[in-house]
Amino acid sequence: MALFADRTAAGRELGTALADRRGTDAIVFGIPRGGIVVAAEVSRLLALPLAPVVVRKLGVPSNEEYAVGAIADGIRVMNDGFRSARALSADQLQEVEERERAELLRRTRRFGSVADDLSGVTAIVVDDGVATGATAIAACRSLRSRDCDAVVLAVPVAPAGWEPDPGAADEFVCPHREHDFWAVGQFYDDFTQTSDAEVVELLSHDPRVG
């Protein structure tokens, strides 16, 4: 049996780990698509508003699950050592980034964008897990650029020893830090891909009610 039955169960456990944030001046920002499912449950449990922060992974064409970096609105993050490993040529990286920027724009139009000014707000960034950490860091940096008071990165599972860059997040909350880690999906019984429609549905109503 995996750690979590599904993303909702993971969100329930993560929400418990964040219980001290209940009712504070914070917003839960989920990373679409799967991270929104986790974030919606965190939002409900903490009685906090839910919003999307759209990020796109920059994957290697031969293995798109392997991220060499990530992009968000106005942000580009590259993983340490990706150039020395020669995972992508400059032309390949440009092609991947152009494709992902188009998808970033499409998702932003579909799911919504982050407010330009988040002063006075603590941003709780939620995803369904961390592998390389590129997308999580891109999301954190995007929100920090909007002058939020603090950034908390919260995920149900991550590799043991992984920590976000201090310049990206002020706090890292992760109930499960695993040594035997090869993919986020290994920790879920149900890791079915989340659809655009499911994300829109979760964002269309206040998950704090009911």
Keywords for this entry:
2 domains; alpha/beta; three-stranded antiparallel sheet; 210 residues; Rossmann fold; 5 helices
Q: What do you see in this structure?
A:
With 210 residues, the chain is α/β, with parallel strands linked by helices. It folds into two domains: 7-55 and 113-204, 3-Layer(aba) Sandwich (Rossmann fold); 57-110, no CATH class. 31% of the residues lie in helices and 22% in strands. The chain contains five helices and ten strands; from the N terminus they run αβαββββαβαββββα. The strands form three sheets. The protein has a five-stranded parallel sheet with strand order 2-1-6-7-9, with helices on both faces. A three-stranded antiparallel sheet has the order 3-4-5. The protein has a two-stranded parallel ribbon with strand order 8-10. β6, α4 (134-144) and β7 (150-154) form a beta-alpha-beta unit. α1 packs across α2 (34-46) and α2 runs parallel beside α5. The chain is globular. The protein starts with 6 loop residues before the first helix and ends in a 6-residue tail after the last helix. The model has no long low-confidence stretch (mean pLDDT 91).
Any idea what the CATH architecture of the largest domain is?
A: 3-Layer(aba) Sandwich
- Please give the largest β-sheet: 5 strands, parallel
Using the alpha-carbon principal axes, give the shape.
globular
Lateral strand order in the biggest sheet: 2-1-6-7-9
Instruction: Name the poorly predicted regions.
Output: none
Query: Helix count?
Result: 5
Order of helices and strands: HEHEEEEHEHEEEEH
Overall pLDDT confidence:
91
Helix content: 25-40%
CATH fold title of the largest domain: Rossmann fold
Percentage of β-strand residues: 15-25%
Number of strands: 10
Distance between the termini: 30 Å
Structural class: alpha/beta
Subunit organisation of the chains = single chain
At the first level of CATH, what is the class of the largest domain?
A: Alpha Beta
Q: What number of structural domains do the residues give?
A: 2
Radius of gyration, in angstroms, nearest whole number = 16 Å
